[in-house]
Model the fold of this input.
Amino acid sequence: MGNSLYKEKFLLMIEKIKELIRIPSVRYTYMSIIASVLNFITLIAWGRIFSVGDYGIATTLQAFVTNAATFVIPLQVIACTLLAGNSENRKRDITSIMKVFGFINIIELGLLVVCIDKLMQYFHFTGVVEIVLFSTLIFLNNIYTISIGFAQGEQDFELLGKIGISLYLIKLIISVILGNFGVGFVATMIGFVIAETVCVVLMLRKLSRSIRISLNENKTQVNKSILKQYVWILLLNLILSLYMNNGDLLLGNLYCSETEVGAYSVTIALSKISVFLVSTPIATIILPKMATAKDEKRKCNTLLILAETITLGMSVLYGGCFYILGGWIIPFLYGESYRGATEYILPCTFFSVVLGVFWVFYQYILATDLTKVFALATAVTGIMAIAWILVMKVEIGGIPFIMAIAMILTMVVLTIYLNRNVRI
Done:
């Protein structure tokens, strides 16, 4: 009798787990984890296949493409909220979004043409093939980015999860195969282009009903509210993207050798694992809770302090382990040629800990509708940090320290501002 009862409870538990897994948002969560793991495996594979210099160029390329998409991210956010809200003027607003999107791509094309010599020098390109692949990748990634917004608006989490896995899996397979034939960092661009082409085609086929524009709309007129949203979200994300998406690599590559950048990028990738494992899940969980309690300042602040305490504690724990074991982990994963990367462990660990705390603090800003103040403070401190780095030509190991100080300064300034408002 007892065994039968335990068996029933066990079967009931299995059914509940199956029901949980069937929830689209839960399935998207574990598919996102799989995609992140594939991306991490890709970086290790590149380190094993390419020289340290080629690895530096490959990671810098990836960072540049990701940061270039910052100009499309506002449209992604607007498209998401527009479709989720079922606006009466949906077709007109989508038309405005696509007009702004087209304008952005025209500007980027013009900049690519004007700056072609500088770009070839910056990325160490040697021929037309590299610049063609690079240009194709920029525009494909723009389409991919805005398509993600439409998929989010339709709440098609199944599509988002599958596309994320497909992107990293195809990129991994193609780049590794070509890399083994001695193609060098160009293999990563080819893999990226093929992967994004496949993903864009799949998404556009699935979202063709959502992305419908009105051909009767004025060819140049754009909805002013869409334009205002775009400008504010862009200002908010410009510096934030540099912190989150390896802006340190982009700055270092301006005057450091590709070998230095390659060694550094290995260490920063490993140290940032704490951001994805610790602060990102905490931020995801805490945002809706703080948004619900935003009118109850004491409760909202308590949630922030709790989240920051957990984030800081776990990030420091991971950072301490990485600091102690990094001298063994880096050569084990990437090979002996990357042993010199261990000198960057301390600054990269410090940066990652601060970034985790900063990211959780950003969720508080979003929940309490302080994005404009945050954008202004982040822009001022971020520009000061970038100017310092470029004028002084700081060694690449010093860049994460300066960027971390800028994030700390932003949080301190905003905390003082918030306390001053409370007293008033």
